[in-house]
Input
Amino acid sequence: MDASTARGAGLARWGVRLATTADAVVLTYAQLLFSRSRLVGAALLLATAVVPRFFVAGLGAVLLAIVLARLLRLAPEATDAGQHSYSALLVGLGAAAVISPSASLGAWLLAGVAVLVSVVLTASLRAALTLPALTLPFLAAFYLLVSALGLVQAGHEAQSVAVGPLAQALPEWARLYVRALGALLFLPRVDAGALVLVALALHSRIALFLSGLGFAVAYALARSVLGTHDDALLLGLALNGMLVATALGGVWFVPSVRAYLVAVVAVLVCALLEVAWFARFGARHGALPALIAPFNLTVLLALHAARQRLSNGAPHLVDFVPGTPEQNLAYFRGRTERFGAMSGLRFAPPFRGRWACSQGVSGGVTHEGAWRHALDFEVLDDDGRAHRDSGAQLTDYYCYRLPVLAPAAGTVSRVVDGVKDNAVGELELEDNWGNAVIVYHAPGLYSCVAHLAPGTIAVREGQHLAQGELLGLCGNSGRSATPHLHLQLQATPRLGEATLPIALHDVVLCGVETPRLQAVCVPKRGEQLRPIEPDLERAAMLRFAYERELRFSLRGPRGVRIETVVADLDLLGRHSLRSSDRSATLYYEPTASAFTVHDVIGPDGSVLHLLRLALSRVPFDVEDALAWTDRLPLREFLPVWLRPLFDLASPFGAPAALEMAYSAQRRGEAWVVEGRSRALLRGGQPLVATTAHLTAQAGLVRAQVRVRSRETVIEVDPNPTRAAVRAPIPALTGGTAHVQR
Amino acid sequence: MSTVAYERPVLTRHQVGAMNKFSRVRAMEPQTHIAGVRVEELVEKYGSPLFVFSQKTLVARYRELRDAFARRFARVRIAWSYKTNYLDAICTTFHREGAWAEVVSVFEWEKARHLGIPGDHIHFNGPLKTEEVLRRVVPEGTIIHLDNFDELALLERLAEELGIKPKVAIRVNLAVEAIPAWSRFGFNYESGQARTAAARIIAGGKLTLAGLHCHLGTCILDPRAYRDQAAKLTALANDLRQAHGLVLSFLDIGGGFPSHSKLKAQYLPGEQTSPSFDRYAEACAEGMAGLEYPPGQEPMIVLETGRALVDDAGSMVTTVIANKRMPDGQRGLVIDAGVNLLFTSYWYEHDIVPAQPFGGLSEPTVMYGPLCMNIDVVRDTIAFPPMHVGDRLVVRNVGAYNVTQWMQFITYRPAVVMVSASGEHAIIRKAETLETVLGPEQVPPWF
Output
């Protein structure tokens, strides 16, 4: 390698470094509004520029923090996302507010040390706390700085900041609202506040609404109850109120009416803290200002309290990687409406083949009271009988000694064996659960199968199980008059524990015209069901090899175009298809039993949006003809001007999904998946209609997608070129993670 | 006016419903309907003799079999045994339920392809696989069940030449207690020949060893035979995984489950002796309990059940041509269906009942077919009531093998009819006429 290429490579490396750093700087600013948008960050950066001193101090602190984080070798993804430097940004802005322009270099040195303290504290709290660190590192570092400044700078009162232009044109409450937004950056000015407002509106409509809600509650309280006119107290109440409402109503809880109620109550708690702080210290000389300490304390208190609940009911804590409030809500609603309330864990029927539910939830026989969320199963023949011949022998019963399987992966926590099988019609009331296996799945979540045949239990306590592993054989032990299987979920490994709500996943309902797949199902008495029986050949139809290139030709109302898509896999093991210009990405989950699209991001025109309509969820069952339903996000089908209104209305329970009815059937050698929206156009035609042709040889061959009257025909190039072969990046999580962004 | 022939009265002790040490004496009931359709209506429309298949029974038996195995195994496939009955309507009924095809000749393979079954959904079995046959079926992905080393070598050569890696299974023959071993097909388990064949296939690298296959025999009444068979196949699969890291995609346990027909050697009727599909599935599951495969990679269980699926769905309607009194005093009946149509009469005692109400005393009766051949005996002795000329009889459980092994001999072969679940009926194979027989015939030009 000659010197010039080496120099070129070196320069290129520096270029990349600079770009990453610039990105981290902008993202640091966005963090202040819980955002990851570069646009939001840039708007906030611009807001600090209304007073150049603040701009320089803030930027300096952020750069220093990023350099320190890199020198300390803190987690680079977090550093690049601005997560080690947002407290430092506040320290810098705060320093600009408290250090007089004429102060000595010592004061700025102290500020630099405070930045270091904030970075180290951020990293430590991230690792040590199970709660979010919020801006506690900033508070600690800044209080140190303010206390120490007394030595190097006499009279360190906060520098008075002008209210800014046009302030008098606004009514008093609006002026306070905008200035309070600016106070987030230590700039309680109308101009800075207006830019923060722009950033907030760019970030999220829900967050904007919540800031207004938090402000309104705090302002009403200050005016009607406290009757205060103290500007500092009013600003403090308003800023903390807005932050608390935004954080709880949209970031840590999934936006909903209940989350908003929590937010309102929390704003009141926060105001109490603020007023108490002000009353105790506010008037005294040299006292520490409350700043955003009440916000920090209130949010931590609320989160800690919410986590003490037995289950994550409404309002729901965000238990996934958060995005904007709108994204959180859309993801959460999509997930619960498509796959049920339980996150992550999916319980399959604990058997193979077709069984019938003989007693459902609150079934009236034994599933009552604390044990109501339980399911009983047996096997029926076409005449609806549970046994052949007279039914006097246990062996006459179809379900007797059939395999019973683990409904989900877990660890065996309790095994009961040795209870004899009852003769038909007799009950054992002493050991009424009979032979049972209790499996631990997640903290506070166990499953229990009971009435197994003695001596057939195939697992030991402590054994790790995959979903579908054999537990034992169905029997007639315990309180069981005829052979059947009992399944329940419970919170502890105790035999006979009260039940938790139960739902089974990916169930095929049989005994109807066309077997119907239900992604989530609480079986009712008499329903015949079976788990998905995966067909590997069908599963292979929608398997996209890593780095495989797919070339789609789209014929639509606007002519023909070509879009190339590449199959990708990220560090977290999330599978995606992304358009080759990287503008759009489709996240999907391929398992042996189904292909599931979780999300599509990117411009509306991409083929990936159309593919999602056609293939939102495709089960790979052995049955040739199968029907199922799915839900697509409604927002995409609304005109652009309506979307902000939709964002604001959706937390209040406005319908968020377009219901689709899908069916699959074999046509010759092709397997055809058709989708129809339940929503109809005025002419009676479905709003969305899709058809996808899949074959064993070529996978996806062709798809037609009609939205309103616009039909697009998508053809897949039969000879996709393979990208240059690179060593595949192995999945870290086994490839089945289904978290969003 | 005709006079009724004098019949000498016989005094016999009345013993309706008495028990013997095996079971109750069965009173014969007439069968006036087949699958809900009047026998007389069918004969009027389609003639006699006549084969009638109940589609409802076909589907019910298929689902019963599939459910029994699907409740015990992660993956189950039924490959319809074409040789048992390859009429299009029968095959299509099973294919619609999800069955693949199991064929043993290029004729059967072509029939499956003609019915729209993809080449890679066909298991090709049997000893008749010439180079010509393999060249035809291998490029379409058909799974080849290897029978011998010559075939293995031939297929390897073809694989190299054609540039494809065919999926193959090893047909294994093995001994289990109580039934005679069918050692003529495949590679022997006990001698280690099957292992050698597997090692050879793996070392050769030209074929994909996808499965093991064993077919114990036919009409096996003891499910424990399948437990032993499954255990041996499992041991072989475990060995192959240990020795070669090979995870098979299927284990084919063949067919051989009995129908409700009664073999000549059996004493009790078929409904009482034929175990349910559940018992066979349970025995197989017991035998395979020791399979050391990782969860999620359980092999597909392939079933090649033929007889047990189709036999009970088929009935034959036949007409009494004449009554006779044999020299030894036994009553004789001449009927219009013989061993030309009921080939299975050689090993079954067919269950035959009158198709109309009857009176009179049952007597040991011999039933002769229509052929002018001494061997044409459908039942050599059956307790049967007196019949009139023109009366119809129903021969039950004759769906398997008869409409494939029947002969065009002396007379034409009759129509085959299917009755749907809702009671519609239609011809699925037309009655033969002179044209059918003359079709392939030619007279040389010098005549």
In short: The CA atoms of residues 652 and 723 of chain A lie 47 Å apart. Confidence is low (pLDDT under 50) at residues 155-159, 722-741 of chain A. The two ends of chain A are 41 Å apart (CA to CA).
